[in-house]
Design a protein that fits this description.
eight-stranded antiparallel sheet, 2 helices, 12 strands, 2 domains, 42% strand, alpha+beta
Amino acid sequence: MIAVPFRQQKRHVLVLLAVVSLLAALCLYFFFPMPTLMVMNLSGDRQEAVIVIPVSKGSQFTIQYIHSKDMLPVHEVFVVDDKYNLLLSEEGFIMLGAGMGESEGELVYEGQWTVVRNINREASPFYLRVSSIAEQKLVINDRVIKLWEIAPESGRLKFEIRKIPRVYLILRGED
């Protein structure tokens, strides 16, 4: 057996420790679950993730659509709370029409818009029936996603926050 000087042994241990630490850090980076807004298409025989976008506490997104009776625009703002639940934070509409019931919160008038702020009602998960007439859009991180283009007419979408590994987002091209 060849004797290795103590100083050289110490360097080998340090190199090995550095390599193991780097590998552990990479595993944490790629496989540690991160919160995402996941929109599942529930139409058909199988559920399919059609939108997967990273979020953090305080992230918000808006659902915009045309009210089926009044044919006027409506928006709903959702926020990710500290426990990664979705909260309905705000609703805005031009005319208080059918199906736009009372909401808790602060009522504000902005020009032709009636806006209810500070609703903070839990909405995890929530479901949306897609319609080309309503022209629902998801607005998040300066992106506008036309929901009627990713699900069939009358298709059902499920919106929720899920924690998934970063590697999944990278493979989808979302990170």
